[in-house]
Amino acid sequence: MRTSKMKISLALVSCILLVCVVNAEDAVVEEVTDSSSEKVFSPVEEVKYVSPEPDGDVYLAEYFDNPEAIGTKWVKSQAKKEGTDESLAKYDGQWAIEPASKEPIPGDLGLVMKSKAKHAAISCPLEKPFHFTDKPLIVQYDVTLQNGQECGGAYLKLLQYDKEMRLSQFTDKTPYTILFGPDKCGNDNKLHFIFQHKNPKNDNFEEKHAKKPSTKLDEYFSDKKPHLYRLQVYPDNTFDVSVDYKIINKGSLLKDMVPPVNPLSADPAAVKPEDWDEDAPEQVIDENAVKPSGWLEDEEIMIPDPTAVMPDDWDEEMDGIWEAPLIENPACESAPGCGKWTPPMIPNPEFKGKWRAPLIDNPNYRGKWRPKDYYFDPNPFHMFSIVCFLLSFFFLF
Fold it and tell me: pLDDT tens digits, residue range 201-236?
């Protein structure tokens, strides 16, 4: 296993977002020509980092320019995660504020998670609480997975107000309003947007997850480059998620969350179209496919290993007839294929699957009966106020 590192700068604002990130790529090389018409290049002045000055209604702006911020402004969790093996339960991952490991800019520092296979959480209070009223919430942070990422999370949580909350005792059970950021294990690449919706009748909270984006996320976890993750949530109950200013997910808090804020039912007025064939297969044989030249139909893909020898202690009466183990047929290595050729399958343009009526808000929904528990929430943007910003990471390798 190798240590995964993360360099982060972040800002949380209500309506105007200002983040200044200086990159080495921003340096400009000016081309000039001397008297001999040969191309020469003027020297480039060294890029020096200057800490941005945020503007607007800012609730938190942090650029990690001060190495002393850990333990003062930023508080590390020292708690234990319940129901986890003792060796992994402690939030004892180590943090540092230091330059990037590759191509650092003088004076530009970042928060780096230094530990592997450790839970790590660090947080600080906002300048003032953010209330979900008539202003959009905009939160963004810059993440560099300096050694790539195979398994682990690098997301943030915006914490709810709790009079008993102690940041040094943060755990995964600490109440939050929004969870946002990248998470990966194996081939499962995610960019979470989750918010806690409060049932207005019984005050219970339930997680609502944004539907998974269709955009491929692989490169963000593997290219070892900085990426700017941004979430915007608006008073009209819409949201969008972007990476490097490219929107990769957007939708409605009312229509595009799982499970939905308000339960749905099949539209009773919907009618299956006459041309809807439920029996059409999902894939069909590609009628235009042609067997590749040189395909060896008389050769098996796997053959008995000609070098294998029956073990001396093999007893055919007890162990059965001995057969050599199979190996890949060497004759197939240079051929386009072996064995009986069959045309490949392609998606069936006529496939529609089983028809189902589209879902609409169920006017008769009551759910599991509880006294006076029915509700319909038309404005889920009115979430629980945010008072704290927390970065919560866990890297396996």
Answer: 778 899 999 998 888 888 888 888 889 999 999 999
CA distance 65 to 57: 21
Vertex 88: Cα angle to 82 and 89 (nearest 5): 25
Give the model's pLDDT for residue 108. 85
pTM for this entry: 0.63
pLDDT digits (tens, 9 = 90+) for 310-336: 998 888 888 889 999 999 999 999 999
* Domains of the chain, start order: 6-21+46-267+383-395 (2.60.120.200), 273-304+323-356 (2.10.250.10)
Which pLDDT score, from 0 to 100, does residue 154 have?
A: 82
Rounded CA-CA distance 190/187 in Å is 10
CA atoms within 13 A on the CB side of 266: 7
Dig out the tokens for 188 from the structure. 């499962």
Which pLDDT score, from 0 to 100, does residue 41 have? 56
**With 0-12 CB in 10 A as exposed, 13-18 as middle and 19+ as buried, what is 312?**
exposed
**Residue 293: closest CA among 345, 334, 330:** 334
